[in-house]
Amino acid sequence: MGTEVSEHDLANVRQLCDQAQLYDYLKSRMNTVAPNLTALVGELVGARLIAHGGSLMNLAKQPGSTVQILGAEKALFRALKTKHATPKYGLIYHASLVGQAAPKMKGKISRSLAAKASLAIRCDALGDGQDNSMGLENRLKLEARLRSLEGKELGRSAGSVKGKPKIEVYDKDRKKGAAGMITPAKTYNASADAVLDQTPKSVGEETVEKKRKIDEEAPATEEKKDKKKKKKSKDVEVAEITNGDATGEKKEKKKKKKEAEAEQNDVQDGEKKKRKRSSEPEEATETPTSKKDKKKKKKKSEE
């Protein structure tokens, strides 16, 4: 202040004036070319999207998922090659709605903003009217969605799941001219408090009834125990009898086997003796005949 203006200062002032004129020119051109997109995203972000796509018609042919990632192609292909998480936003990150959101909500808001922006681009490129009503409506819906998401996060961190406050998504769900919700508040039902006419029993009466029940159940339990003991004794006797019979049968079988083996041995011994007796005389008869034959052979040989 109060000093002379140098040439360097004049050059900077002229540049700022040129930038202001350029911004005004861009604002007016974007409002005429793509009014719905400018209402949603803003002049600068809308112009960058159109410049990146090549033209408004080329941008209208692309889906919302592509509009969301425009400007982050390098990160996308790097993530696909290395199998990491893909980027959530590109040039849309500089929009005012994404800037208002919390860091956790930026991905959700950028996805919904890209979907609405693709609809707005198609309306601007192929529609007849030059009105930005559609863009303004979608912007209001996105702001309401952002508020509802932030409210849900606050409800989760506030307390338990049952104690979460019910937050409506849009303002249309509220009553006109009142702050309350459409759903009425629950009232206390007094008719459900009907009680039967019963006199409460004292502690002494309850104990007496319990003792009576125990005394009545005691003989039944004793009879059951006696029956169990009798059954056990009978089972033991039957088992002893069956064991004795089994042992006796085994002894008899062993005796029979021994007798049969002895008989077989006697028969075999008798047969052996008979064979020996029959073989002895045959040998005796054979010996003299063999001697006579030898003498005859000698005589014949001498003659």
Question: Could you walk me through the main structural features you see in this protein, from its secondary elements to its overall organization?
Answer:
It is built from 10 helices and no strands. It is an all-alpha fold and 303 residues long. The chain is elongated, with a radius of gyration of 58 Å. Residues 163-170 and 281-286 have low confidence and may be disordered.
Characteristics:
303 residues, snoRNA binding, Nop_C, mainly alpha, elongated, Nop domain-containing protein, ribosome biogenesis
Give me the secondary-structure topology:
Blueprint: H1 7-33, H2 35-40, H3 43-53, H4 56-60, H5 64-69, H6 73-82, H7 96-100, H8 106-126, H9 133-158, H10 203-302
Biased composition (Basic and acidic residues): 203-225
GO biological process, one term: ribosome biogenesis
Protein name: Nop domain-containing protein
Through-space gap between termini: 184 Å
Q: Helix- and strand-based class?
A: mainly alpha
Computed Rg: 58 Å
Q: What is the share of helical residues?
A: over 70%
Choose one word for the global shape.
Answer: elongated
**Chain-averaged pLDDT:** 79
Pattern of helices and strands: HHHHHHHHHH
Total of helices = 10
Number of strand segments:
0
Q: How much β-strand is present in the residues? A: under 5%
Low-confidence stretches: 163-170, 281-286
Largest sheet: none
